[in-house]
Model the fold of this input.
Amino acid sequence: MSASDSAAVRSGPDKLVYMANQIGKFFAHQGEEKAAAGIADHIKKYWDPRMRARIVAHLADGGAGLDKAARRAVESLR
Amino acid sequence: MSLVQETDYGTQAAKSDAVVTLTIDGFPVTVAEGTSVMRAAMEAGVKVPKLCATDSLEPFGSCRLCLVEIEGRAGTPASCTTPVAEGMSVSTQTERLKKLRRGVMELYISDHPLDCLTCAANGDCELQDMAGEVGLRDVRYGFAGDNHLGAAKDESNPYFTFDPSKCIVCSRCVRACEEVQGTFALTIDGRGFESKVAAGMNESFLGSECVSCGACVQACPTATLIEKSVIEIGQPEHSVVTTCAYCGVGCSFKAEMRGTELVRMVPYKDGKANRGHSCVKGRFAWGYATHRERITRPMMRERITDPWREVSWDEALARVAAEFRRIQAQYGRGAIGGITSSRCTNEETYLVQKLVRAGFGNNNVDTCARVCHSPTGYGLRTAFGTSAGTQDFDSVEQTDVAIVIGANPTDGHPVFASRLKKRLRQGAKLIVIDPRRIDLVRTPHVEAQVHLPLLPGTNVAVLTAMAHVIVTEGLVDEDFVRARCDLDAYADWAAFVAEPRNSPEAVEAIAGVQASLIRDAARLYATGGNGAIYYGLGVTEHSQGTTTVMAIANLAMATGNIGRPGVGVNPLRGQNNVQGSCDMGSFPHEFSGYRHVSDDATRAVFERLWGVELDHEPGLRIPNMLDAAVEGTFKGLYVQGEDIAQSDPDTRHVTAGLSAMECVVVQDLFLNETANFAHVFLPGSTFLEKDGTFTNAERRINRVRKVMPSRSGMADWEITLALAAALDVKMHYDHPSEIMDEIARTTPSFAGVSYARLDELGSVQWPCNENAPTGMPVMHIGGFANGAGRFVVTEYVASDERTGPRFPLLLTTGRALSQYNVGAQTRRTENSVWHQEDRLEIHPHDAEQRGVRDGAWVKLASRAGETTLRARITDRVAPGVVYTTFHHPDTQANVVTTDFSDWATNCPEYKVTAVQVLPSNGPSLWQESYRAMAENSRRIELDAAE
Done:
């Protein structure tokens, strides 16, 4: 996502997608499988249930914008 | 009650394990080698007359009052400058000494206004005391000769006066400015009889470099430098030791009182954080406590467009309770939450999170640490196992190389800065990593060996490049790593940092810093002896804030700079109780003591004690609350002592979130910016009006003591209790000490903390429990709290906030010495003399390109919004970088900052905003409409009977 999208991601699923992908960048060096586990663990520990439900719903709608590791992480939250 | 009197030993304590025994007036005394005769005498209970000596300063030997006779030695040496020796026999009172001292006093008094009865220092004047002690009965020289009695008084400083007619030229003020504060603003001008104290280049105090720390006033033995409040009110009659409510240094002060009126705040010598020093905020900026804009009665209104209406406490609390319960019934249990304050006490913070968890039935509690040091908690816990700094402030006295990164201690943490500067003057080396040329880079008698003026947002790249140098040049402390750290994690990390893409040469293009400077910094830190890292919000307030904290921890572990005095990782906390508010369970995912809400055993502890079932799911963080409000699932908020509408990023989003809520409750001293969006206002109390504790940046738990009644009738902890009662939530405490007792029962790292223990020890640094009954000044000695230190791979990820043709400059923000945070307190004091408005610092090159003149109005625009303020042209900032503060609501610097945030904690990326700067001729539309809205919102309906 480019910086010019800032206003668009202030709330809603796009913002959650952005956040999940951002977490993924920290874990990226561990490889996709470990990164997905790291992202999922982080989301479980720090995201309120409504945020988790929302990104899971977004995945059910196709999960647009989710990076591969983040997508796998969200899949594991279902 | 009486005044807390501290013994002045005349000279500083010697730091030697060897001892010397001597006799003073026939009494044997054993003291540390290197102690002065004057101090040895005082320790033996013999007070030698003195004027130029005081134990905060190096001995000077100029006043000639402290003369003594020493058996076998010729003459009458000054006791302040004479060290003790084994077997020495000292006489402090002989006919010869009496005559000499009277003669000296006659000379002093012959040029002194004899107005003792009307002098503001009457009762607290060392000259007066000495005249009495030496038995002065007449002045043989008369009073008709040349004198300084007509010298003009300097009243330019808002807090103290300088009356040269009363000056005895003892140089204590000059020495205090040099030795204690390290500013060197004062000097003795002229020679002989013409000698006089001068500020700067014979300027007024206000016009000079003086930073108004008060050290000179504290050191002055007469009324030459004296607080205006003492002149106005008179001498205090009792004092209470308490803790400053400004920055995270947590200075101890004596609140000196006359009845319930505060006369002055005097830094407490036994305060272990400040060791008797202070800054302009803690020492002088307490007038807000009695400011006319204090709100002292509860208020409420139906809509935020209505005027406020004063109501009773019962009515206000009943409204909150009814609204919160209605909202939960209508929108769900998770539709409300609370925000705790880092300006409130540990006990108050603990109560708010308890109210949310036990009363609201969710974990929607967060704190302002979210927007400052939340990455510190996450990062240090990952690396070391504890969410806190590793050292005490005394540790700096043993530091050989200090790295200051993303912090500006001379402005943000001035008392610590003075202690650091003192160590630097003694020869320690300094590395500054900051986009801006902060004062520490070059200040009197201090100059950084290396300054890395990196581009905002590139901390991780630069720190990883330093690690590259340490690993590839064989500078790793392998013994430390092998003994103390997880070796697999180390191996992964070492391989990562050694990659060529992490070399200084590769990073130079990213960070804009010469590779050779990065190499110099790494080598100096790794090989220069005890290396300590001090950091601030320039580290945490980035999209990679947590990663940067981990990178700092990596450097400390790789070089073995952990686990002993002089080294360590030291977060400089922004507000007085940031550490404490985090410790007390203010985060939505964890209870006090940093235990996750999903942990069954921890939840069981609280469920048994509180008698309710607790939610095992994490709650909403502040930015998530605002997002949820905009989305319509979060409708009610209890804000204790925070001003998120001014302090949090992307103001338009914050205000949109607040506006979308149905019941916003603000508990504060003033109608702050957040109160513009509130439905109920509960009047809070200042730190002077309540008991409690603050925990500073070094984990030190300090007592806060009530010195005057609450102006609203209730301390903040009592208000939370009353709100709990209105919500039928069972909580009962008669005193904050009982809340601390509960904290100790539920929180392992606080198990040994009680008010009795704090009164006994003065303060204690957690952990304080059976393993560390008197606390722990330095952590991780012999081993890390998590068993093995964990190195973490810190891949640099560029911020998504990038410059481009529309927004070609990078804005970074900070704070000024004289103002504090959103300025709610300091703007309501005379401190505004030094900082009346936020200004935009811009490099001459960038200013020239845009036709911006110094002092002219400019428009500062980002993708999030725009504001206007006046420009200050300076090469303190590099080309391409601009800087401002966020102390004034008229500027609303956070209209410009974006909602990008740290990946782990959502700590906002305040320090990197792509902006454009253009000449302007007036306020932005946002400023105009916001000002009108704020004025409208602050209307208070007059009582019909008035």
